[in-house]
Specification:
Strand content of chain B: 15-25%
Largest sheet of chain B: 9 strands, mixed
Structural class of chain A: mainly alpha
Number of helices of chain A: 16
Structural class of chain B: alpha+beta
Distance between the termini of chain B: 39 Å
Oligomer: heterodimer
Strand content of chain A: under 5%
Distance between the termini of chain A: 17 Å
Largest interface: A-B, 32 and 32 residues
Order of helices and strands of chain A: HHHHHHHHHHHHHHHH
Number of strands of chain A: 0
Shape of chain A: globular
Radius of gyration of chain A: 20 Å
């Protein structure tokens, strides 16, 4: 038996972990570029990064032509907002704090090692001297965050039994990933910037560049990159991969709901899978600013509501044993 | 012989190359590397001598192998600053400064350790608490914050023979208190016989009239009891019983876990009685009370993560494999309690509640409660769910009723109490009030309903104005106060600011009682008044905790 509140906590914990990792990867990619990217591209990069995260830029990035010193100062502030700002609910520190809050509620169900790893990471991030880390190198801190998140993911993978708790975590992880990837693709295919967005950067952000090069070529073609990020069943950050994992998790949690008549979340995720298979999604011309993924993003947000309504906040009369 | 052969086979298996599946090229380089760096098992260093344990062992302190032949005394070695006082019983030393019997090994080890080694152990224990988040929640100025419970790395020891006596006394006390509760919520015979005054019981805010006539499973009202025990020159005495929602057991287990890791050799050398089975015993106790014999579903009801003892609630639920539920997770339908699961509502059979009586059910008790479940008491009265401890048990741990516990034991069990009570003056009586007001500067005055070290006056440490203010309050509401002499709590060695110093201690013991099952944890949460000279051991008042070792043998401390 899985307590509904605990299931929600597992789900949200995984979402916050995934969100923190997503932000850290985007940030690392942007901060690594401080060394050799043009000022124009950097300014666009910040704008895109904030839009992907669904936030407005707290400090306007330095306009083109302004001195580099200002750009670095802006980068410092912009990165700090995403890294350790206690008032930004989506900053990495806040995501980790919330994931830990969820984990705290889940202590009876969480293996001790998972909790300890989560807590140690939180204590490290809370006590971490952001200015000193910046002095070591702008991307040092996000890189360390990613390392610690991977350690946590490894401990979770090694320690958690594959029961409902695990599958609710899978659900949270891949719902979050689906939404973030859809937002990313929405920006890349639907934005016209002064400087064209780099598809190589997108592949790097999605940790897919090396695999893409092996599968296609080192010359990144937007249509192939899009096909790869949407439909490839083996790429952990493709939409198809995330959708399949959601389907699998749902059928493990609720095998009855996976049979006809399908439970609402099952039915909805099948619809999302069908959309991914449709040709319109990958036939869009990514260079002409098609806003194809906006609708998909909205639907992936609706999936969350259906999951909560079906397994957490259902009416009492529906839940009574027959 | 068999064991030696088995051990030999294990060693051979360990040193034989393991058939690891790997790429042949990798295997070749791995073998080369292995022989080059000598990573095979070798208990001897390159010079053929045993490896120097002084440089390889992580915890230097624990290397000081306890040796009872070594002489240590108060004032020697690490005990250089240890001031013995004839006024207080010392857990480690006789009054002449020599070590007591069972503490000889530990004392010798401590005496031979230097401050940096002890500091290393202390740091290791604290670090473990920090990393594992062994905390309690403090509410200050409307904000909650997590705090690590202060822990001291020097364990307190007690011989097995002494504990056996305490064990018997605790069982006797709980049996009598359960009979008392059954009686006052039933026939009320002891009230009619004048063992305890009517008004004391019926006027107690913790007396729940709703419990009158309720059929409690096996008449076990108190399944989990936390009794505070002190020690003086006169022996052990009970300071108070906690019969509602006693807390602290998780810290007892956390302390034990940390100490086993910090000083494993010393621990092993002492053959300490095990307390780690507490959660299993707790589950057995709770399950035994259920009407359903086949795998009853047990839940721990917590007020939520902002409760001071939330760590403990989560810990116990996790260790028992029980559900950790809040009021909002439960639903009462047709006098049956259900929990919201992801696939519908599931029945709950036993609730180990960590919520006060008043908040359990807004229909029966406090209507403003958001922590409980509407209709829970109705389901309880119908016998469809067990609540442990039963509502209304608080009447038996009232500070005024405490002074009647010896009489209750004599009345219900026809036995003399094994554990003594602390002398208590009831301000509700004319003599008690007069004595209290006359000796206010020598007594500790407590509010009957107070807890956590709040709302009390420690006469010898108080100012004239404080005493005057208390006297006014006592005269206005005499029934709300009791007075006790200032207790000369025993002292145990603690590592304070780089030195070993004595500090006052008590112990909270934990007793479990179910249907035909009973268990006393051999040990308890040893609470320490870490402030010099302080007698207040509560964690909210600057107190901390330390591990409490009850030895398996019956060696006498004397």
């Amino acid at each position: 038996m899985m307590l509904a509140r605990a299931a929600a906590d597992f789900y949200w914990m995984a979402r916050y972990i995934e969100r923190a990792e997503n932000t850290a990867r985007l940030l690392e990619n942007q901060l690594t570029g401080l060394v050799d990217t043009s000022i124009e591209e950097l300014a666009v990069g910040w704008r895109v990064l904030y839009r992907v995260l669904g936030q407005s830029v707290s400090v306007a990035p330095a306009p083109m032509g302004e001195a580099e010193a200002y750009l670095m100062a802006d980068a410092y502030t912009l990165a700090a907002t995403l890294m350790e700002d206690a008032h930004n609910p989506d900053s990495i520190l806040q995501c980790w704090t919330r994931a830990r809050d969820n984990a705290m509620q889940l202590r009876p169900w969480l293996p001790v090692r998972v909790w300890t790893c989560m807590n140690q990471g939180f204590l490290w991030l809370r006590e971490c001297d952001y200015t000193a880390s910046w002095a070591e190198g702008p991307s040092v801190l996000p890189a360390e965050v990613i390392n610690r998140l991977r350690l946590l993911a490894g401990v979770i993978h090694a320690r958690m039994p594959r029961d409902n708790a695990w599958y609710f975590m899978e659900l949270g992880r891949y719902v979050e990933r689906l939404q973030r990837q859809a937002a990313l693709l929405d920006i890349w295919t639907g934005t016209v910037e002064e400087v064209p967005l780099s598809w190589t950067s997108l592949l790097r952000v999605c940790t897919a560049y090396e695999a893409y090069c092996r599968l296609y070529s080192m010359v990144v073609r937007p249509d192939q990159a899009l096909e790869y990020l949407v439909r490839n069943p083996e790429l952990p950050r493709s939409l198809r991969f995330a959708t399949r994992r959601i389907q699998h998790a749902l059928s493990e949690i609720d095998p009855t709901g996976a049979r006809y008549p399908l439970a609402p979340p099952h039915r909805f995720v099948l619809r999302l899978a069908a959309e991914i298979e449709s040709d319109s999604m990958v036939e869009a011309n990514p260079l002409e600013g098609d806003a194809l993924f906006s609708n998909f993003l909205k639907e992936s947000l609706a999936l969350h509501d259906l999951i909560v309504a079906e397994y957490v906040a259902y009416p009492i009369n529906k839940g009574l044993p027959s | 012989m068999v064991n030696r052969q088995l051990a030999l086979r294990v060693v051979v298996a360990l040193v034989q190359p393991c058939p690891v599946q790997c790429n042949s090229a990798d295997a070749h380089s791995l073998l080369q590397q292995r022989f080059r760096t000598k990573t095979y098992i070798n208990l001897r260093s390159e010079e053929g001598n045993p490896p120097d344990m002084a440089t390889t062992n992580h915890y230097a302190f624990d290397r000081v192998i306890p040796d009872s032949r070594q002489n240590a005394s108060a004032g020697s070695g690490a005990f250089g600053n240890y001031n013995l006082s004839a006024c207080f019983y010392d857990e480690m030393f006789h009054s002449d400064g020599s070590l007591r019997g069972a503490t000889r090994s530990l004392g010798a080890a401590l005496a031979n350790a230097d401050a940096s080694q002890l500091a290393q152990v202390q740091e290791g224990v604290v670090r473990r608490f920090v990393h594992e988040g062994i905390t309690f929640t403090v509410l200050r100025e409307g904000k909650t914050s997590e705090q690590i419970i202060p822990i001291d790395c020097v364990p307190r020891l007690l011989s097995g023979a002494e504990w056996n006596l305490v064990d018997l006394g605790l069982r006797q006390r709980l049996t009598a208190l359960n009979l008392f509760l059954h009686d006052i919520y039933g026939d009320g015979k002891c009230l009619r016989d004048g063992v305890v005054p009517y008004e004391l019981v019926l006027g107690c805010p913790q007396y729940r009239v709703e419990m009158r006539g309720v059929k409690v499973p096996s008449a076990v009202y108190v399944s989990i009891c936390g009794t505070d025990i002190i020690r003086t020159h006169d022996g052990f005495a009970v300071l108070e019983d906690n019969l509602r929602v006693p807390s602290g057991v998780s810290y007892m287990l956390a302390c034990r876990g940390a100490m086993k890791q910090a000083i494993p050799r010393l621990y092993r050398a002492h053959t300490v009685r095990e307390v780690a089975h507490y959660p299993q015993h707790l589950y057995t106790t709770l399950a035994s009370l259920s009407q359903r014999s086949d795998n009853p579903r047990v839940a721990v009801l917590t007020p939520g993560r902002y409760n001071a003892a939330y760590y403990e609630h989560a810990f116990l639920a996790g260790e028992m494999g029980a559900e950790l539920v809040e009021g909002r997770d439960l639903v009462v339908h047709d006098a049956t309690v259900f929990v919201r699961s992801v696939l519908g509502l599931r029945r709950i059979d036993v609730i180990y509640r960590r919520v006060d009586d008043g908040f359990l059910d807004p229909v029966t008790f406090r209507s403003d409660s958001l922590l409980g479940v509407a209709g829970l008491f109705h389901a309880y009265r119908a016998g469809n769910v067990v609540i442990a401890n039963a509502p209304g048990t608080g009447v038996a741990d009232d500070k005024a009723l405490y002074s009647y516990v010896p009489d209750i034991i004599r009345y219900f069990l026809a036995e003399e109490p094994i554990l003594a009570n602390v002398t208590t003056h009831l301000c509700r009586t004319r003599e008690g009030l007069a004595y209290t007001l006359e000796h206010l500067d020598q007594l500790v005055v407590k509010e009957v309903g107070g807890s956590g070290g709040y709302g009390m006056l420690i006469g010898p440490h108080s100012t004239a104005s404080e005493r005057s203010e208390f006297a006014t309050r006592i005269r206005a509401y005499p029934a709300d106060y009791i007075a006790q002499p200032v207790l000369d709590l025993s002292r145990a060695a603690c590592f304070i600011d780089g030195h070993l110093e004595p500090r006052h201690v008590d112990v909270r013991s934990f007793v479990l009682r179910g249907r035909d099952v009973s268990w006393v944890a051999p040990g308890g949460l040893c609470r320490v008044a870490l402030r010099k000279g302080s007698l207040v051991v509560n964690s909210s008042q600057g107190g901390g905790c330390k591990d409490f070792w009850v030895l398996a043998n019956s060696e006498d401390l004397q």
